[in-house]
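Appendix C. Worked example: PHP domain-containing protein
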Amino acid sequence: MNDLVDLHLHSTFSDGVRTPTELVAMAKGLGLKAIALADHDTVAGIDEALAAGAAAGVEVLPALEFSVAYSSFKDVHLLGYLLDHRDLQLQEILKEFRDRREARGDAIVNRINEKLATEGRKPISSAEAAALAGGALGRPHIAQVLMHKGYVRDMQDAFVRYLLPCDVPKRYFPMEEALATVQRLGGIAILAHPTTITNDRDTLSRIIDELSAMGLSGVEAFNNVCSEQESWFLRSYAEKKGLIWTGGSDYHGIEEGISMGTGRGTMAIPYSCVTELRRMKEERV
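Step 2, the predicted output written as structure tokens:
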């Protein structure tokens, strides 16, 4: 086993296609020392991942990826690491989000069925997609049903032809609420793939400064959407500001060319990122 990690993975409990146990087995096969299960707006798969990790000798960090709105920016993603995922208040908050997510999935299926009807094709059902999900129904699960029916060639085709045109907006956490929740649960808040907010470095620097004043602890400098230059800018800016930096593949199992551990092929996240996360958590106790 090497000293590399992947701190951003998704399972069937949100919009990934691998179970937490399967993700741990993959990490073991790749020789990763640690992983973080960071499903969208749910912690339902963490206990399974922790048990599988203990059995396989792979360190698993509890994590959660919040879908957040900040200022005029929508769908900002905030990672909360090493938080108390069994907290009852958190469970209630996430249950509300899960219920809304299920309703969104049903609404997307209804829109897709309207489109299928115009094409002379039989409808799909939410139940078929939900059967593929370990937790909340996500768009990749709907895409898999479309693939199984032979309506699309692959995942990308499903999104282009049906899921994007038939999408329904989702609800977002206010940034203040998400940061406060991570802090209350003893976690470490990291801004996920920051360049998806904006590629303008001045604007992004300002946002990071504002969020760090609100409780942000670091940035995900290495990810599958940043260029090499952007990643090194984020790392150097984090170090300049006294923030920590992390990295992860954001692996769902559906993106062409993205692999666990290495992202698009060049990612190599050191175990020192885990050490820094744990150090910061211990300092706050």
